[in-house]
Amino acid sequence: MSFFEAHRARLEQAVGACRARVYWSAYPEVASGKIYGETAKADGEAAFKALLGKPFDLGESGGRRVGREVSPYGMPLGITYPAMDPDALIERSMKAGDGWARASIGDRVGVCLEIVDRLNKQSFLIAHAAMHTTGQAFMMAFQAAGPHAQDRALEAIAYAYDEMTRVPREVNWSKPQGKGDPIVLDKVFRIVPRGVSLVIGCATFPTWNGYPAVFASLATGNSVIVKPHPGAILPLAITVKIARDVLKEAGFDPDVVMLAPDEAEAPITQELAAHPGVAIVDFTGSPAFGQWVRENAATDLVFTEEAGINSIVIDSTGDFRGMCANIAFSLSLYSGQMCTAPQNIFVPASGIDTNEGHKSFDEVAQALAMAIDRLLGDPERAANILGTVQNAATIQRIEAARKLGRIIRDSAAVPIAGFGEARTASPLLLAVDAKDDRAWGEERFGPIAFVIRTGATEESIALASQSARRKGAITASLYSTDDAVIDKAADAFARAGVALSVNLTGGIYVNQSAAFSDYHVSGANPAGNACLTDSAFVANRFRVAAMRRQKTA
Amino acid sequence: MSFFEAHRARLEQAVGACRARVYWSAYPEVASGKIYGETAKADGEAAFKALLGKPFDLGESGGRRVGREVSPYGMPLGITYPAMDPDALIERSMKAGDGWARASIGDRVGVCLEIVDRLNKQSFLIAHAAMHTTGQAFMMAFQAAGPHAQDRALEAIAYAYDEMTRVPREVNWSKPQGKGDPIVLDKVFRIVPRGVSLVIGCATFPTWNGYPAVFASLATGNSVIVKPHPGAILPLAITVKIARDVLKEAGFDPDVVMLAPDEAEAPITQELAAHPGVAIVDFTGSPAFGQWVRENAATDLVFTEEAGINSIVIDSTGDFRGMCANIAFSLSLYSGQMCTAPQNIFVPASGIDTNEGHKSFDEVAQALAMAIDRLLGDPERAANILGTVQNAATIQRIEAARKLGRIIRDSAAVPIAGFGEARTASPLLLAVDAKDDRAWGEERFGPIAFVIRTGATEESIALASQSARRKGAITASLYSTDDAVIDKAADAFARAGVALSVNLTGGIYVNQSAAFSDYHVSGANPAGNACLTDSAFVANRFRVAAMRRQKTA
């Protein structure tokens, strides 16, 4: 049975899910032995340990080797990867792309589905790789880098498949000519890829943010060069290795997917992005570099997820405790290093109405601080929620931020059992006034949040939505018991292109974006120009070449 | 009955046609009184004449007036149009866009469909307007600027409608939590437009090339500023007027569609395109200006149809006479001023096999020249096929081209009865060698064609497809009785992103691109980055803003 036939039912479900956008998931997020096999956890850990301190084998004959990853949990990984010059990479990618471009939609999509299936089986290995590069806690690393990323991959494949199959393969075009014979043409429409697709990965969610681009490009016939962040190579190296194995088994040149690792001291991303041989660039990372990519990539076809400043507007609530707990979790999860994490919490100076009576501005701020303390009170739970801090610069950023307002809750290191050298930080919570926009008006990546005193909810909504238009935002969150306020906020945030969550108090958080349902990044404000995943994310990765032939009598 | 309900059946047929891509047309191309009304022809002509020499009324209170259109048939139109500064235009467009963005998909699409329906009823007026700006012969102006353009508009509306309605409006997302209660979110997905859409028109097919962008942007909720070529304002002015009338009737601000006319001496296109208030730019025109737009538009969202060099490869034919007649027509139609018209005809030095025996290179070239002479032998028919030359620079280009090769057939003026001052030119046909690529390797817009002597068909295909990759091409045409040659050419032209026509000998020509079936411009070579019309042409003109709300118990 072909890969395509083997995975066809799942593909069709995925295509349906992309349309319906109700809850659906292909890959279980529960790291259970019952699902992944009783030895999967131990096998994954052993496989990870076996990789440490060694050259990583990608089946490539590379001369030079690079790689200096250091786990945010404290130890260097000691893994090196085969490196190639950009020219050589692109030449090999182009060459391999020829055969891939000629493959049928089914063959290509089948290979993609098989890769994702095998990635799923390696979810525990990938979890360890993600944990020790992104610094996430194990369980989050498992979910975000494993099944959630795999769902995002499948979603992109489903969109690509759906989009390609919307184009008929062959048609018979017959134009009536009054009483005469019709003019008849046989037409054949061919999907032609763009060429070499460069995927520039980030250090915090290398697979979750990278897979949609990798698989959208791959399914539509492009060859893919995966350029990982120098701090988070391993999860993508494992991915590329699995992809190359599947490609080879299916009879394709494994160079259809290549890894382009580098080190922070000798970066190659700019050279790759500006190379005229690159037809598509996908980028996840900082707005500064994102702007460089948009302006300097040789191709016009650039998809970005940059960053923004996410806001919470608190107007009123029917569940004060639930609200505070929910926000505390959102601020703490992965130490605020999610592109969806909130930074700015707008609260009216006059306070808010709640089910526990009126709460003053200061009471709200204090309650948020206490909710964080409560959440992180148990050290083991704290470690499981916070994980570690991916980049040392974030620790310095917290240090500098302390001066930006009145400290409501200070950030502190949080010891993690077994990892004495782990780089950690709990949330810093500062109170500021609306006019202090030099403090809250900039993105301060990491566990840094502001409780902002505004004149009223109307001002909160205006400031938050204006900030989104100006600086970008991926998420916004609103707490209100007043439908008129909810409607007003819905209008304002929709026009600013921000995904709004309303009254989250239970086990769901504004940070979370579910494949097959949530559109991650709208593309409509500076937080990014693309969305994971919609038609626009896939439709321009291929073109249609037509042939029409006159029927001879 | 709403506009949407009134036109719903047609819309649904159009959506189906876009998928099936078999022959379908909504607007009859036959300029018959039985279809358009017995007085339609006379009414259209009278309406056109009534516009001449007067200020054109767009229902705008504009101070300044511009407009210096001169018919290529000889007389100045004497029509002026209300002009506004770019800042003022964009401000008004933004303001009007607010209400339009909030309208429902059905309301917006209904307005679009009603506009196209009324444009169809004015096809005779638009035909005269197109004839005396583009210089096309009347019947071609009727079809191309009328029903064919209207079909292209409907196609874009259908794509936009289909794409928007693929996004569910409201969903209930329920995520199972093992034995616990599921997490339930009510999600609302809103289509949000990009903002102000600028459509930059061309002088040769102002409506056919402009409508897809106008209606794709309009249907998806953007306000539209139509910037016509200073030489072909009238067809788009009539269009804008009809659009504004319908908008007003439907209760919208007519400034949702505005005209931005200028004069060649004081152009405003660059200022408009580089304005940060413009969110989408659509451009049809020269590669030089297209490059400027792509590089300097304030927005990244730029759709272009620029130009290319289209080729015919002659390998062999089973209908020598039919082939020559077909090519002669393609070279003559509208004096070679179609972006789909062929320029380069590659013929092996050793000649070709035909149903009339072997023909040498020179015999093929001579037969083509004779076919043109035969086609244009009758002056009335010649005028109806050639029309006039839109731009005086084309006449100079023909003059300069005479030195580029051996003249097989010279270009000449072709008198048109009743229009003594018409600017006309029949095709110039030159013989050159493959190595003379300084002659044939550049786009020479107008009735200029080269018969190029190559080593063999393989070289012909290679040269034509390489030229397409380098300089762009929209169409290619092949004549061959050998399926292996056809397959090879299909591969080469598909990879160069060129639409290939094979063995056209009857009443269908490589120049013709049918709405609902042919993809016009692939977007995969320098002839343009967009296609009329595919999903990619519409999917990025809007974004999705989501709201999710936790269900309270």
Radius of gyration of chain A: 25 Å
Number of helical segments of chain A? 20
Major sheet summary line of chain A: 7 strands, mixed
Helix content of chain A: 40-55%
Average pLDDT taken over every residue of chain A: 97
Strand order, largest beta sheet of chain A: 15-16-17-12-10-18-19
Low-confidence regions of chain A: none
Strand content of chain A: 15-25%
Assembly annotation = homodimer
Write up this protein:
Two copies of one chain form a homodimer. Chain A is of the alpha/beta class and 553 residues long. Chain A contains 20 helices and 20 strands. The first copy, chain A, has helices at residues 3-20, 33-36, 40-51, 86-102, 105-121, 123-134, 138-145, 147-165, 206-219, 234-249, 269-273, 287-296, 320-332, 361-375, 379-386, 392-401, 437-440, 457-471, 483-495, 535-539, and strands at residues 65-66, 81-82, 170-177, 180-193, 196-200, 223-227, 257-259, 278-284, 302-305, 310-314, 316-317, 342-348, 352-354, 357-359, 406-409, 428-433, 448-454, 475-479, 499-502, 542-550. In chain A, the strands form five sheets. Chain A has a seven-stranded mixed β-sheet, with helices on both faces. In chain A, strand 13 (352-354) and strand 14 form a beta hairpin. In chain A, helix 13 (320-332) packs across helix 14. The mean pLDDT of chain A is 97. At the A-B interface, strand 3, strand 4, helix 19, strand 19 and helix 20 of A face strand 3, strand 4, helix 19, strand 19 and helix 20 of B.
